[in-house]
Amino acid sequence: MEISNDIIWIGASNNKQKIFESQYNIKNGMSYNSYVIKDEKNAILDTVDEGVTELWLKKLDETLNGEELDYLIVSHMEPDHAYNIGLLAKKYPNMKIVGNQFTFNILSNFFDIDIEARKIVVQEGDTLNLGTHTLQFFMAPMVHWPEVMVTYEQTEKILFTADAFGKFGSLEIEDDWITEARRYYIGIVGKYGMQVQALLNKAKTLDIKMICPLHGPILKENSAYYIDKYNKWSSYEPEEEGTLIAVSSIYGNTLDAANVLAEMLKEKGEKNVIVCDLTKDDWAEAVANAFRFPKLILAASSYNAGVFPPMEQFLNRLKERNYQKRKVGIIENGSWAPSAGRTMKNILGEMKDIGIIEPMVTIKSRLKEENMAQMTELVRKIR
Ligand SMILES: Cc1cc2nc3c(=O)[nH]c(=O)nc-3n(C[C@H](O)[C@H](O)[C@H](O)COP(=O)(O)O)c2cc1C
Ligand SMILES: [Fe+2]
Ligand SMILES: [Fe+2]
């Protein structure tokens, strides 16, 4: 990836990786970015994940071509970026490490490095001059770790954003930026909307020509588009019209009812109706789509006087990410004493600003003619 004469991307993709942070499926692998700035003083911005060490190191050697590495800027201590700090410290005994107070607390947990001899502690707005380039640091606490900071290069007007504006997927495989960026953001950072808003407010004061994240492509144009998406996600506003129908069904009868509802909604002109089977489909995409739309329908079987567990887990994942400001409809199914609806309402009650769309539809074992009046009324309310 081309950046400029003096700023060189030395990242790499792991195409074999199937799962990220031990819980997110990544069918297209994952990319880890790292950047070198060549100047009177040479600096590197972050290292990479263990899995791509070799290729990264080769690129680093080629880029420095025997020159000294003066500074390592650590924007995030999570191992997918910080794994190789120990290796760099060994390779470059004179290299200073630039971070904030929290960076060095965490760094000392992970590595046996003489931190006192190497550390340069920066605070909000501090600068580091490399020659013709000047780096300015802005703190982004809890986006999504406490030590996160972003770096603005003043001469070329590039913002290095740490995990922000990143996505799942290797760089070699073309996919839809928005789908994988949304799944990444909502999954990993979704809980920290307020902190992301604080960061976006700082970004507003900068003239940004290019966004360089730690995952995914470098965003060279139209930064307003990406910032707008982040603004919506972090303020918990829906992105566009639409309804997600999330289904947790044991034998398939509740899933049938959900599909009937989806058809009824489409007939009434509702665009973007997505049915998601929580027992099979990607959970992080389901969670991301719940945030994407203003309306969510939950359809679930009853289970031991509660709700069939995939639904409970889905709702807990929404809650964990501060899901709020949405309209939610409910279809419950039970063969003797339906309990799914009550259980789902209880979990929804622990979230902020959730409006229940009445009526709740109660099915006994399978959808029947007698349920259709309630189904029709639910569709009318959703539309
Ligand atoms: C382990 C287990 C526990 C269940 N517990 C309840 C229950 O507490 N109340 C109830 O009405 N039905 C209960 N059911 C029955 C299902 O909820 C019911 O058959 C429902 O119609 C299944 O819908 P589905 O075809 O979408 O899975 C239970 C089923 C299983 C397998
Ligand atoms: Fe991270
Ligand atoms: Fe990361």
Helix and strand arrangement:
Blueprint: E1 7-9, E2 12-14, E3 19-20, E4 24-25, E5 30-32, E6 35-37, E7 43-45, H1 53-64, E8 71-73, H2 79-82, H3 85-91, E9 96-99, H4 101-110, H5 115-118, E10 119-121, E11 127-129, E12 134-139, E13 149-153, E14 158-160, H6 177-189, H7 193-203, E15 210-212, H8 223-234, E16 243-248, H9 253-267, E17 273-277, H10 283-292, E18 295-303, E19 306-307, H11 309-320, E20 324-334, H12 340-348, E21 352-364, H13 372-382
Parallel strand pairs: 7-8, 8-9, 9-10, 14-15, 16-17, 16-18, 18-20, 20-21
Antiparallel strand pairs: 1-6, 2-5, 3-4, 6-7, 11-12, 12-13, 13-14, 18-19
The protein binds flavin mononucleotide (FMN) and fe (ii) ion (FE2) (2 copies).
Q: Remind me, CATH topology of the largest domain? A: Metallo-beta-lactamase, Chain A
Mean pLDDT: 98
- Output the number of helix runs: 13
Q: How many extended strands?
A: 21
Fraction of residues in H or I helices: 25-40%
Class of the largest domain in CATH?
Alpha Beta
Low-confidence stretches: none
CATH architecture assignment name of the largest domain:
4-Layer Sandwich
Strand content: 15-25%
What is the rounded Rg?
24 Å
Per CATH, the superfamily of the largest domain is Ribonuclease Z/Hydroxyacylglutathione hydrolase-like
Shape: elongated
